[in-house]
Design goal:
Strands 1, 2, 3, 6, 8, 9, 11, 12 and 27 form a 9-stranded antiparallel beta sheet that branches. Strands 17-18-22-21-20-19 form a 6-stranded antiparallel beta sheet. The protein has a 4-stranded antiparallel beta sheet with strand order 16-25-24-23, with no helix packed on it. The two termini are 34 Å apart. 27% of the residues lie in helices and 22% in strands. The protein is α+β, with helices and mostly antiparallel strands. Helix 1 packs antiparallel against helix 16, helix 11 runs antiparallel to helix 16 and helix 12 packs antiparallel against helix 13. It is built from 16 helices and 27 strands. This is MACPF domain-containing protein. Keywords: Coiled coil, Plasmid.
């Protein structure tokens, strides 16, 4: 067994790690005391990832994994976080090898800051010196505003709604508090990790390779396609070739294993041993997840040091103790929010802001983004040159200095890894860091995270299409300008494969796009203009006069195959009508044409009332050209007699004998992302345009009051769904 690198975006995160919502990168811990507790909790998650043209599940063919949950302060930052993804062990290749990874992610315990045992002064005293001093600096400014209001016998609310020249000292002191609060967030983020789901992950990885390249796609037209509700329902053979190969298929299979968190190393070794030297023919009907041993962590939850209550210094006790109540905290939060809103509209008055903030949140941008995701209508090349400032697909968190990594876990620190974390805003932990949160999402540009995921999946789809075309005998694409060289389909496939790998290695959209060859770039531009082609997840349904391609006829030869057209009951909505028909795939060319080809028999070269003809001839035959129709989201032949309909995965749901293969997986088929955006919209609809952290603090609060764990709002982010009852 070997340990392959697992790119975990929660790598090195501990209790007290802080995070900045605008980039979702975790930074080293700022907690310097043992103020956490641990509870045992056992929970296991299975998943199947990799690449296969014969299986659909939420994690297959994605090239990246969606994050479960999200962290953000504003509505926009929550949207960005919901759409983010990490690479992990998800790499999906499009070569003649089929690769699939079966993983088990097991939770064994939840560590959490035990706030019920802490007061605000005690919590402050448990922070590292720099963080504590920065928070106290903001408190000094907060107290200075309160003192000035008392000295002038005016409420903060009246001072802010009066002419600025009437109370200039209060306005000046308030700006100092805003600056001190902003400096704290700039240095220590806006959120703190206050809980961690500890566990481990591991699994087995299969790579199945045909010695004959054509074997990779030889069963495409009439293979069995599996729409997998549960990953356990799919066998290795179904993943490789749709269960069409026989016992003599010349296919080699290799098995490797990986583990992250040694608490699962023994079980992974046992799992790996079952398959490591077994030929593919003997694995045909094996359901790998069913064969896994008990993947619960039997050693129990990690051990952590005993809880120790921090003792506040006299300085901390006096400064926090000077806060007799939080009567005006909501005014501070609104003043802070007003400063943010005024940055976008310098003419906005405080009174106008207060009126606007009470209106319903405007979610028009989110609604538009949800529809674009659902329909795969994402323009990845829009403003691409301005999107080259950061790595968009998450690979891992910032690597922390060894000296900075807080290691509360006793024994072998490699035994457990974070699988999920809970984050609380600083303003919910330290009252005078009051904030306002804008919940509206309007005029939203397409998320960079979504563009990155779409572009990656586009490159993988196009690589798969040109690999299939090459294996189907379409070796070249002729150019309209005969002075230009022929374009090799194998070279296109390799180029798209290469650029997809660059994105998984952290290249930006601009860097990846500019790594395409000239023909590949022309093809991608045309593909991106016709976004509905991404919906051809199960290929394109062929319809001519209510007929589709159902069976081959006699009279063909090695370079030419004739298929019979037969009537199907398709009404434009019931895509299950194509379940037994031969589907075709789109083949975009550098000359802005779209050809159609069959996974088995080459280019669609002609079609008549009763038959369709597919030709190989190395791609040098005259192919039928199809015109995109943006309104109907279909392709039409020049004479208008043939329509090609993109078929989505859900057409195969519930059909046990769907014939064919998949060529595309995309965000529109990602149920996890759809669920995340729906959850975000439902949550934001309950809120007004602006909300304030002051709502989480009682006005009669005092420095002797302990926190209430249930009143501290937290957001969950993880590799797995949020553990239950936490």
């Amino acid at each position: 067994m070997f340990n392959s690198e697992i790119e975990n975006p929660l790598y090195a995160v501990t209790i007290g790690s802080h995070i900045k919502s605008y980039d979702n990168n975790f930074k080293p811990s700022v907690i310097d005391s043992n103020i956490s507790s641990m509870i045992s909790q056992v929970e296991k998650h299975d998943r199947m990832s990799g690449t296969s043209s014969y299986v659909y599940s939420d994690k297959m063919n994605q090239g990246s994994f969606g994050i479960s949950g999200s962290y953000g302060v504003s509505g926009v930052s929550k949207f960005e976080a919901s759409a983010s993804a990490y690479v992990g062990n998800a790499a999906a290749n499009s070569s003649k090898s089929v690769e699939v990874t079966y993983s088990a992610l097991s939770v064994c315990g939840v560590e959490y800051v035990d706030f019920e045992k802490l007061t605000v002064p005690q919590f402050l005293s448990g922070l590292k010196k720099g963080c504590r001093q920065s928070a106290l600096g903001a408190l000094d400014c907060y107290n200075a505003v309160n003192k000035e209001c008392n000295d002038l016998d005016v409420s903060l609310s009246d001072a802010l709604t009066s002419d600025k020249n009437q109370y200039p000292t209060i306005h000046d002191l308030l700006q100092k508090w805003v600056k001190a609060s902003d400096e704290f967030c700039r240095d220590y983020g806006d959120g703190l990790v206050v809980g961690i789901a500890w566990g481990a992950m591991g699994g087995v990885h299969f790579k199945m390779t045909a010695t004959d390249e054509d074997n990779s796609w030889k069963y495409g037209g009439q293979a069995n396609f599996s729409y997998a509700g549960l990953d356990k329902s799919v066998s290795l053979q179904a993943i490789y070739d749709g269960s069409k190969s026989d016992q003599e298929a010349n296919v080699t299979a290799t098995c490797t294993s990986f583990v992250s968190g040694n608490a699962l190393s023994d079980q992974v070794q046992e799992w790996f041993t079952k398959f490591s030297e077994t030929a593919l023919q003997q694995l045909n009907d094996v359901h790998v997840l069913v064969e896994a041993p008990n993947m619960n962590i039997t050693s129990g939850a990690p051990e952590i040091p005993e809880f120790v209550t921090p003792k506040p210094s006299e300085d901390v006790a006096n400064k926090v103790g000077s806060l007799k109540n939080l009567d005006d905290l909501h005014i501070y939060a609104k003043a802070k929010a007003y400063e943010e809103a005024k940055a976008k509209n310098s003419e906005l008055t405080f009174e106008e802001f207060l009126k606007q903030s009470e209106k319903e949140s405007n979610l028009s941008g989110l609604e538009k983004a949800k529809e674009q995701v659902k329909e795969n209508n994402i323009n990845t090349l829009d403003n691409i040159e301005s999107l080259n400032q950061k790595e968009i697909l998450i690979k891992k968190t910032e690597v922390m200095d060894t000296a900075e990594i807080k290691r509360p876990i006793k024994g072998n620190s490699d035994d457990h890894i974070p699988l999920g974390v809970w984050i609380a805003h600083w303003s919910n932990l330290i009252p005078w860091l009051a904030q306002g949160y804008c919940n509206s999402i309007e005029d939203l540009d397409t998320s960079e995270s979504i563009k990155a995921r779409v572009m990656l999946q586009d490159f993988q789809t196009l690589s798969r299409i040109y690999h299939i075309a090459h294996a189907s005998g379409i070796k070249y694409i002729k150019r309209k300008d005969r002075s230009l060289p022929l374009v090799k389909t194998a070279a296109l496939a390799d180029n798209f494969d290469h650029v997809a790998a660059l994105m998984q290695d952290g290249k930006t959209l601009s860097e990846a796009y500019h790594s395409l060859s000239d023909p590949a770039a022309l093809i991608y531009q045309y593909w991106n203009e016709n976004t509905f082609l991404r919906n051809a997840e199960l290929g394109l349904g062929f319809v001519r006069n209510h007929k589709s391609i159902l069976s081959p006829t006699s009279g063909g030869n090695d370079n030419r195959t004739v298929y019979k057209l037969e009537t199907i009951a398709f009404n434009g909505r019931n895509y299950d009508a194509f379940s037994q028909a031969y589907k075709v795939l789109p083949l975009p060319t550098p000359d802005r044409e779209i050809w159609a080809f069959g996974p088995e028999k080459g280019l669609l070269s002609s079609a008549y009332d009763t038959e369709a003809v597919f030709s190989k001839s190395g791609g040098l035959v005259k192919a039928m050209n199809f015109t995109p129709d943006q309104e109907s989201k279909t392709l039409h032949s020049k004479d208008g007699k043939i329509t090609l309909y993109p078929i989505r995965f859900n057409a195969a749901a519930g059909i046990e004998n769907w014939k064919g293969m998949s060529s595309s997986t995309n965000i529109g088929a990602d149920h996890g992302l759809e669920k995340s955006l729906q959850h975000l919209e439902e949550g934001l609809r309950e809120l007004s345009a602006w909300t304030y952290s002051s709502a989480n603090w009682p006005e009669n609060w005092d420095d002797k009051a302990a926190y209430h764990q249930t009143k501290i709002k937290k957001q969950y982010v993880g590799l797995i769904e949020e553990p239950k009852n936490t």
